[in-house]
Design a protein that fits this description.
The chain is an alpha/beta fold. 34% of the residues lie in helices and 17% in strands. The chain folds into 2 domains: 219 residues, Rossmann fold; 51 residues, no CATH class.
Length: 287
């Protein structure tokens, strides 16, 4: 497919392959919500923890019925991940498992950006790898944004609640930034996006207004925004509503369908959405 034909579309497929079709230095901004790693061990007790463990084991090239049984048993999920990691080492198939995704995609993202300018939502266990890659190795400037949820999921096992999510901006020195005092907020407070989750069936959907603010601050109208882990399409919708062009990539067929429909004003249940996503958010320019 020609690069021009990818613009203002959401592509179905593996972003590690799809991105090879994008020319060098053709993207103005990357905005993405990478697959999270929630805990160092098994990925948590929830259904999302099971999916996270499955993705990590699949990334190692080890997933089969044996691992299916292990990850369905919360007490044995860490065992499954350790076994898969050891198998990957023996086969010389080492990937950055602790990041929840293969860091090789970052090399490709840096290749396609005109200048390094990227927002990445991540879990706390991914912060070190990303800081080393962009700040230590590539000498980028960075900012940290936080979304504080007033109704987080209750926690167990002696740990703090998951009431804060992190978004990092990495950009080359010399790159500019626009925006207003309203859009330049660095922290946001709101309830979890339960309404958006119901509409678009995605467990980690981010507030549309936050994404729009970041895009406004870091691009001009008609710039191209790339999201290689598109999910339910929040980045692409934010780009569309702010007059930017976009390219989305999503490997899951169901989420791809939801994202495409969302851009056409249709919910995951096939209903016409009469309103755009709205999040009532308070913020600060705090440092």
């Amino acid at each position: 497919m020609k690069f021009e034909d990818m613009i203002n579309t959401i592509q179905l497929g593996d972003c590690y392959e799809l991105i090879k079709q994008i020319p060098d230095k053709s993207i103005d901004l990357v905005y993405t919500d990478v697959p999270y790693l929630y805990v160092q061990g098994g990925g948590g007790a929830s259904d999302l923890g099971k999916r996270t463990a499955k993705k990590r084991i699949t990334l190692m090239g080890s997933y089969d019925s044996h691992f299916e049984n292990l990850i369905n048993d919360e007490t044995r999920r860490s065992e499954a991940l350790r076994t898969a990691k050891q198998k990957a080492k023996e086969n010389n198939e080492i990937v950055d498992l602790e990041a929840g995704f293969d860091l090789k995609i970052l090399d490709e993202l840096c290749r396609v950006m005109k200048h390094i300018y990227i927002y990445i939502w991540c879990s706390k266990l991914q912060i070190l790898s990303l800081m080393e890659y962009f700040v230590k190795d590539r000498d980028c400037l960075f900012e940290i944004f936080t979304w504080h949820k007033t109704n987080p999921t209750p926690t167990h096992n002696n740990c703090y609640p998951p009431d804060t999510e992190y978004c990092f901006l990495f950009r080359e020195k010399g790159t500019g930034m626009g925006g207003t005092m309203e859009t330049l907020k660095k922290w946001y407070v709101s309830p979890t996006n339960t309404s958006d989750k119901k509409l678009y069936h995605h467990p980690t959907i981010k507030p549309l207004e936050v994404v729009k603010n970041h895009i406004i601050n870091s691009t001009k109208e008609n710039d191209i925004v790339l999201d290689c882990f598109c999910g339910s399409g929040t980045t692409c919708l934010a780009a569309k509503e702010t007059g930017r062009r976009y390219i989305g990539m999503e490997i899951d067929k169901e989420y791809h369908k939801i994202a495409v429909n969302r851009l056409n004003g249709i919910t995951a249940d096939g209903q016409l959405s009469l309103f755009t996503d709205i999040s009532q958010l308070g913020g600060s320019n705090g440092n």
